[in-house]
Amino acid sequence: MKVVNTPPIAGQRPGTSGLRKKVTVFQQPHYLENFVQAIFNAVPALKGGTLVLGGDGRFYNRVAVQIILKMAAAHGVAQVILGRGGILSTPAASSVIRKYAATGGIILSASHNPGGADGDFGIKYNTDNGGPAAEKITEAIYQHTTSISQYQISEAADLDLDVLGRFSVAGMAVEIIDPVADYAALMQDLFDFDAIRTWFAAGNRMQFDAMSAVAGPYAVEIIEGLLGAPRGTVVNGLPLEDFGGHHPDPNPAHATELIAAMSAANAPDFGAASDGDADRNMVLGRNFVVTPSDSLAVLAANATLVPGYRQGLAGVARSMPTSAAVDAVAKALGIACYETPTGWKFFGNLLDAGKVTLCGEESYGTGSDHVREKDGVWAVLFWLNLLAVTGKSVEEIITAHWARFGRHIYSRHDFEEIASDAAENLMAALRARLPELAGQSLGGQVVSRADDFAYDDPVDGSHSAGQGVRIIFAGGDRIIYRLSGTGTAGATLRVYLEKYQEDAAGHGVETQAALADLITVSRELAQIQTFTGMVQPTVVT
Ligand code: VG1
Ligand code: CO
Which residues form the Alpha-D-phosphohexomutase alpha/beta/alpha domain (predicted)? Predict the structure, then answer.
């Protein structure tokens, strides 16, 4: 074991989901080691405990795994459970932490951010419930990075990561597990695999685009293997260190290959994609895109059709910018609906306390109490289960849902790589105007409420302020503004737009056209062009 002197490195505060930086930043001397040491300092229980370790396989994953193994050994961790090849999808890591009652886990991923030598890398700590560490812990980790003076690392040789079995690194046990097996078993407990097998056997077709990311092995084994879908159902199924140069983000703007396949003449019945670490999902029907907010609402409304949720839902939760589609379902079901800040870590307490069963975010994230992360493959299997037992198409399910609950027309406009100070100034100017907005008319609609969202966790009472500016109109339409906490270059302004359309005659409208007035108001109110110089968003989903 050696002790290495190190200076604190600025800027290691975890964002919405862990610490994300360019690979080149992580490659700087001591950068990763300082952060990992801060985790061990902040979580003393890891000494003598079990740590789960794995990542999405992106560039630098294997290097980071070797470093973390040696540091874990130096810190007296009793056992590391490691995915073969250093691979574990984020939801699989969460399930493994829970199944083996581990002390915690370190997940290596920058999720939907691009990878490769010039791309992004990331690291986050998950606690013993399998979920992302709460703000209290991420903040403690950050504080340690600001005062660190040395780290400990063993001088053991590198471990061969590609062989299953039990090994030792400087006396610490390392169990290398199949990254898919435990997760696949959990999925079989939740979903009606027989019904889905029958659906495929009847000739229904699907395309799952793993976007050359970590979902590939999970989707191939579960969908083509256990569920008998034809070979080739999963495309881009081989995880690549640079995701083939693509943005592994499952939305219409980035999953262009899937969008094209689903709008072709011979399109499959069902399309799906997931992100870099397989916790996000996008689902589509033939020539029909499902928004994540609608998907959450549909899963909630139909949950009892699925074995794992047959007993009904305790409650549901959504992040604040996510549309109120699920609120309408909760109301009809007579269950609670919680509104939380952006980021999965805010769902953890609600799930642990049994207050909610399903939760989701507008950013292509859906999940349940089966793990403590959002879960892309789980959401896709949930949809497959619904398609199989209802015999309906995706479009039929969604349009029937709208007919019953009304449609929450929804879109997110992202303005990426804005200079950080311009973005901060824009938000500050917006916040300064909030007190005067209520009662005013904007674009012909009266503002009923204008505030900066704050959240009081109903379980532990923790308070999180400054979570996004909300402009809520009298009719329920909303414009939300917040800055991204996952980017690595400049700042990203996210503008979320929502309009409720009750009348079925208006449900077929094109989304951007239906939101045109709100879009204009959103640009003018925040003076987006004045502050950023940008006339149009870089990504619209
Ligand atoms: C984004 C999404 C948020 C999500 C987070 C992590 O955060 O908006 O809903 O929880 O990414 O997802 P932000 O701060 O950039 O808006 V993942 O799949 O990147 O871990
Ligand atoms: Co992700």
Answer: 12-151, 203-284, 293-405
- Please tell me if the domain spanning 2-179 has the same topology as the one spanning 183-405: yes
Per-residue pLDDT tens over the stretch 20-76: 999 999 999 999 999 999 999 999 999 999 999 999 999 999 999 999 999 999 999
Does the interface ipTM go beyond 0.95?
yes
Sign of CA dihedral 295, 127, 456, 467: negative
What atom of ligand 1 comes closest to residue 482's alpha carbon?
16
Is pTM beyond 0.90? Reply is yes
Which residues are CB-neighbours of 531 under 8 A, at least 6 positions away? 418, 422, 423, 425, 426, 429
- The answer to whether 452 and 431 have CB atoms below 8 angstroms apart is yes
Would you say 150 and 74 are in contact if contact means Cβ atoms under 8 Å apart? no
- Residue 18's pLDDT band (boundaries 50, 70, 90)? very high
Domain boundaries, the chain: 2-179, 183-405, 407-540
111 labelled catalytic:
yes
- CA 540 to each of CA 199, 374, 412: distance values in angstroms, whole numbers, following the listed order: 34, 22, 6
**What angle, 0 to 180 degrees and rounded to 10, lies between the N-to-C axes of helices 181-190 and 376-390?**
30
**Which protein residues touch ligand 1 with a CB less than 6 Å away?**
16-17, 111-112, 275, 279-280, 319, 342-344, 361, 363, 365, 484-486, 494
Q: Which CATH architecture has domain 407-540?
A: 2-Layer Sandwich (3.30)
Angle at 238 between CA 235 and CA 240, to 5 degrees: 125
- Residue 36's nearest CA partner among 2, 62, 1, 74 is 74
Angle (deg, nearest 10), helices 325-333 and 292-301: 10
CATH annotation of 183-405: 3.40.120.10
pLDDT of residue 488 exceeding 90: no
Q: Which two tokens stand for residue 221?
A: 């084994």
User: What is the rounded CA–CA span in Å between residue 156 and residue 297?
Assistant: 50
Residue 110 token pair = 């920058």
Contact assessment for residue 33 and residue 66, using Cβ atoms and an 8 Å cutoff: no
Among protein residues, the one with the nearest Cα to ligand 1's atom 11 is 486
Determine the atom of ligand 1 nearest the C-alpha atom of 276.
Answer: 18
* Cα 16 to ligand 1 centroid, rounded to whole Å: 6
Distance 427 CA to ligand 2 centre (A): 26
Task: Tell me the CATH architecture of domain 2-179.
Answer: 3-Layer(aba) Sandwich (3.40)
Which of 241, 249, 231 shows the shortest CA–CA distance to 376? 249
Rounded to an integer, the average pLDDT of 178-201 is 98
Please give the helix or strand (H or E) that residue 519 lies within, else none. Answer: helix 516-525
